[in-house]
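Quarterly update from the structural biology core.
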Amino acid sequence: MTGFVKEYYPQHWEVYNSYPYNVQRWDAIRYLILDKIGGMYVDFDYECLTPLDDLIEGKTCCFALEPQSHCEIFNRRVMFNNALMASTPGHPFMQKIVAQVLSAERLKFDPVPKDRCVFNTTGPWILIDLYEELPEREKEDVYLVPDKYVTPFSVRQARELLRNLLMDNENEELENCLEDAYAVHYFFNGWMGDEK
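Predicted structure, tokenized:
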């Protein structure tokens, strides 16, 4: 990835290399790749249940909405993540993300606590803030995929589902959440345990 950044985004190399946490570089590289070549990025803790083609057909920039309960927890009007994203090359919103995430301003955040630093510098909160600042006309070009399709469970429900699977228990309420789902996000958050 170092070679990719140096070749295509040399103006951002210093900031990219200066992040205090590896996860910030992991976040940033996905935006750079989507900006440069387009495509879809999906975290390892997503499970695809059925192809997403019909769901995103004709869309040029997509992000997975999270359940309303997450909005309430974090006091946000809208909550989406960077765990499932798609973009055409050079999409204006992806370019805006790259410009902000890889600006020297992002290095001014106190690196502790780690989760808050990451969320505000390269993670979902900076993306949501940038989206909220868009004029309505530009928001129309960013498809926020409804949670029932790609994030049918809250973090709590995902944990409960995994516990039930381990214990071979069934839960009709959780099964019903999958009725319209194309994919499931399990919210493993493995990056939080990474030391750097």
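The chain has twelve helices and six strands.
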